[in-house]
Amino acid sequence: MHRSAPHPVMAPVLAPVMALALLLPAGCASLPEGGSRQAKIDEAAVMERSAAVAQSFQGKLQAQLVAALQEGGPVQAIGVCKDAAPQIAAAESAASGAQVSRVAERNRNPAGGLTEEMRPYYARLAEAPLVDGRPATALWRSGTGAAERINVLRAIPMQDKPCSTCHGTNLSPDVAELLHALYPADRATGFAPGELRGAMLVSWPVKMFE
Ligand code: HEC
């Protein structure tokens, strides 16, 4: 008989609770115990899919790079690298659902610098770019709620051939000139084999693994 009548006590009790919820940062309101905020996800699956995406990117780019070097030499290959790398990254991103890019502390492409967030992970890769003969990796989560991401960095070690032609210590004058013209702020020369040249960044929405 009285069921549909509004409960007189409800409004005054709820109002302060809701006001408090609004003051808390998003994502923390319903989680009093802090550290347990992150849902568990299968990190091995993330690593496996990230490695597949990174290898696909690198395989395609390397094939175009080597073909261009053989056909037209390094000056032609620089142009191929400049156009192909962003295109392959965009295609791999669309196909996988991840954001795929290359980053470096000493970068050539000005869009490929490090963010503050990735710096400690990159530094760890730089200490040992290869682990048991395989590229070192680092994984971390960032963001909150629907924007939460899981990120994987995968080392790209410097090799002598073919990398030294365009990233080494002794560039030919025509290569150096073209690189300077295309990338006036180029920092990606002077590398020795075995050093960390850069890293693949594969960044997924966490919800893809929940
Ligand atoms: C023919 C010249 C050439 C060769 C050879 C070459 N690169 Fe590059 N590399 C470039 C250019 C040009 C860019 C910038 C591409 C862009 O604009 O996105 C680049 C960018 C990169 C980047 C992205 C980060 C940055 O500095 O912008 C990495 C990592 C990289 N190269 C690694 C390598 C490795 C490893 C090798 C050997 C397997 C190699 N490169 C061989 C020309 C070359």
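^ heme C complex. Residues 65, 74, 77-78, 81-82, 85-86, 102, 104, 107-109, 112, 156, 158-159, 162-163, 165-167, 188, 197-198 surround heme C (CB under 6 Å). The chain is about 45% helix and 15% strand.
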